[in-house]
Design brief:
heterodimer, A: about 120 residues, mainly beta, four-stranded antiparallel beta sheet, globular
Chain lengths: ~120, ~120
């Protein structure tokens, strides 16, 4: 069965520190996608990134970077030089590959609440 | 470009009443997903719909819950005879297609249901 684990429930850092949010997943599919979403205090869910299972290249977008390692089934998210506006709950998710290679439901981890203090 | 629109943002119901949650997908998106976020829990999948079809309802409770996505109009998540345990945030997401390559789900702001 598919499963996503975010072992860190809460993380608190001081502004300008780097912080890494861990995500470990389980799946039997060979084709799958991994996602990160941000849920700020206002409550909406904001899409951050999607990676497919065939592309293990790390990705950087501004202060955000993602490290995908199939060997350890991990898809970790690093925020460099954190800012107060980064305070949010961050969710890692896995998309199943259903019949006919269709996209389907997202399986979410429990989320990591990041608090960045000034 | 409007995003995924959910209404109402907040809904208060008394036990036994019906709750109707609406979701209008992003323009050009024909696939809708509903998720529920219970207090202290992560997001759990409920149902996946395409226009006029339910593709996957494996996360829907067996009773009182139903969903539709008609040819015209928004998707509706309907909860009959609400109970206190239904109090949660309900999120709708839409995607442009069914293939994995198109399956980026964009979320609405959610509907917070409170059952008194």
């Amino acid at each position: 069965a598919q499963k996503v684990t975010q072992a860190q429930t809460e993380i608190s850092v001081v502004e300008k520190e780097d912080v890494t949010l861990d995500c470990v997943y389980e799946t039997r599919d060979t084709t799958y996608y991994l996602f990160w979403y941000k849920q700020p205090p206002s409550g909406e869910l904001v899409f951050l990134i999607r990676r497919n299972s065939f592309d293990e290249q790390n990705e950087i977008s501004g202060r955000y970077s993602w490290n995908f390692q199939k060997s350890t089934s991990s898809f970790n998210f690093t925020i460099t030089a954190s800012q107060v506006v980064d305070s949010a709950v961050y969710f890692c998710a896995l998309s199943e590959a259903k019949i006919y290679n269709q996209g389907g439901k997202l399986i979410f981890g429990q989320g990591t609440e990041l608090s960045v203090k000034p | 470009n409007a995003g995924v629109m959910q209404n109402p943002r907040h809904l208060v119901r008394r036990r036994g009443q019906e709750a109707r949650l609406r979701c209008s997908p992003m323009k050009g998106h024909s696939h809708v997903y509903w998720y529920r976020q219970l207090p202290e829990e992560g997001l759990k999948f409920m149902v996946y719909l395409q226009k006029e079809n339910i593709i996957d309802e494996s996360g829907m409770p067996k009773e009182r819950f139903s969903a539709e996505f008609p040819k015209e109009g928004p998707s509706i998540l309907r909860i009959q005879q609400v109970v206190r345990g239904d109090s949660a945030a309900y999120f709708c997401a839409s995607s442009p297609g069914q293939s994995l390559a198109k399956n980026i789900q964009y979320f609405g702001a959610g509907t917070r249901l409170s059952v008194l």
